Amino acid sequence: MPSNSRCRTVPQSKADIRRQIRALRDAAPADLRAEWSARICAKALALPAYRSAQTIHIFLSFQSEVDTQAIIVHALACGKRVVAPVFVKGSDETPCAQITSLEPSAFDFGRWGLRTPKVLQLVPPDEIDLVFAPVVAFACLAPGGGPLQETHKAGVARIGYGIGFYDRFLKRVRAGAPKIGLAFELQRVEAIPSAHFDVPLDGVITEASEYPPG
């Protein structure tokens, strides 16, 4: 299954986009997802923003997401502070906690295999230098926001899993900290419906390209 470099046309509701793109991602062979993940992680590790960051926020991959393990291992080996999201059901809070290991014994495993650090060393969002965010689907925004995103500057619109954690969290990260999504090329769509609470990303890295281009 080749990486898809074309912009995919999908239904316009967020729920439909989420459902279709997750199905596409799940259908990609595991060995290809692993290959694509390795390329994405290599690009992420080459970012000047990563090299200069002292504290990075990164998601702990589950199901068919981009595997972020290589980034986490590298960051820990370099002495960076690594923090991961802590999802609290039914809460508007967006805590994140420092992780110092990827050993299974360091985590509690919840529904769908989501990992939560057993020891919660909470880190304030304004101390984070760089965010790597999970993505279900994404679309590039034109300068000025484009027809569907008039309130946003140029960047990349994202759809997550529908609980709003990252839209709330990204508003709490300090101004100037880059917010980068990690996704497979097949997750790119032509457009995403906007909502007033949506927070765009500064960019998205895929195995095939980096967005916005140029």
Describe the structure.
The chain is α/β, with parallel strands linked by helices. The chain has a single domain, classed as Rossmann fold (3-Layer(aba) Sandwich), CATH 3.40.50.10420. 24% of the residues lie in helices and 20% in strands. It has five helices and eleven strands. The strands form three sheets. The protein has a seven-stranded mixed β-sheet with strand order 3-2-1-6-9-10-11. A two-stranded antiparallel sheet has the order 4-5. Strands 7-8 form a two-stranded antiparallel ribbon. Strand 1, helix 4 and strand 2 form a beta-alpha-beta unit. The longest helix is centred in the first third of the chain and has 16 residues. The chain is globular. It starts with 13 loop residues before the first helix and ends with a strand. The relative contact order is 0.20.
Features:
single chain; about 210 residues; alpha/beta; Rossmann fold
The fraction of residues in strands falls at 15-25%
Shape: globular
- The CATH topology comes to Rossmann fold
Number of domains: 1
* Highest-level CATH class: Alpha Beta
What ranges have pLDDT less than 50 throughout 5 or more consecutive residues? Answer: 144-152
Order of helices and strands: HHHEHEEEEEEEHEEE
Query: What is the percent of helical residues?
Result: 10-25%
> Cα-atom Rg, whole angstroms?
16 Å
Multimeric state: single chain
End-to-end Cα distance, whole Å, is 27 Å
Number of β-strand runs: 11
What is the mean pLDDT? 86
What's the tally of helices? Answer: 5
Strand order, sheet with most strands:
3-2-1-6-9-10-11
CATH superfamily: NagB/RpiA/CoA transferase-like
Q: Helix/strand-derived class?
A: alpha/beta
Characterize the biggest β-sheet.
7 strands, mixed
CATH architecture, please? Answer: 3-Layer(aba) Sandwich
